[in-house]
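2024-03-11 09:14:02 DEBUG pipeline.ingest accepted 1 chain
2024-03-11 09:14:02 DEBUG pipeline.ingest length=297
2024-03-11 09:14:03 DEBUG pipeline.predict start
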Amino acid sequence: MKLSTQTHVFSRRFGDEKAIKLLAEIGYDMLDYSMFASPLKQPDVFGDGYLEICKKLKKTADDCGIGFNQTHAPFPSHKADDEDYNNWVFGAIVRAIEVTSLIGAKIVVVHPTAAVKENRRKEFNLAFFNRLKPYCETYGVKVALENMFGSNPNNGQIIPNVCSFTKEFCEYLDELDDRYFTACLDVGHSGLVGETAQNMIVGLGHDRLRSLHVHDNNFLRDLHTLPFTQNLDWKAIMLALREIDYTGEFTFEADGFLTKMPDELLVPASRFMCETGRVLISWFETGNIPAGDSKGE
């Protein structure tokens, strides 16, 4: 299993080119290219010069001996009563599909939306993703749906919304063309709504699950932090991935661990994250998973 991490924090600090070089030096095998920043802060790949930018990104990665396994499209994918935004973001997601292909990645993560009435959500989302199918065909890229969560507008409490639970997630995937659509399981999001990541892994199974977002949390807040620092059961998660013979990459989305680090500590902190990923991958590959509790306390 190859180890990957998203580029977001390093790219915001140092720019894409230096981010790629640093993350390759730290020891990652692959990268998840982040395209979800505000267009005002990340205009490049959404601007007119994107073809040259993508060519440079791929060359830099190739020269560093690293590749891109996946990307993350802009989100939210839809807003209620904001057609200007919705027209922009659909075009940006289409551009993200093309960029994914140009830099050599195979999967782009696109969030489903809860910004429509609950009784219309499934119909709306399936229609939305099917609009992307021709672009997936053209560029040879798969779109990965992600399991999401919402928040109660009255008290901020986390609540389920789209694809939050295994049954619904599978239903969405099974109604889409599996040549062009797959699952990205966010292991942290699962715990926030009361379903364990390991149960979702087994429920999605080998054929549906091709991508991960890996991070830890306390089941109360979406912390996006380092495994073993909060409450997810990493022993059970790696056993579940092994049980379904998972064939995708192990991709960190644990930038909460890095965000507040000063520049002087960013590389050492990311190196420790990389080492943590190697341990987890070794559990998966060898089956030598230590006995006892693997949850952070």
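2024-03-11 09:14:41 DEBUG pipeline.report DSSP finds ten helices and ten strands in the chain.
2024-03-11 09:14:41 DEBUG pipeline.predict end
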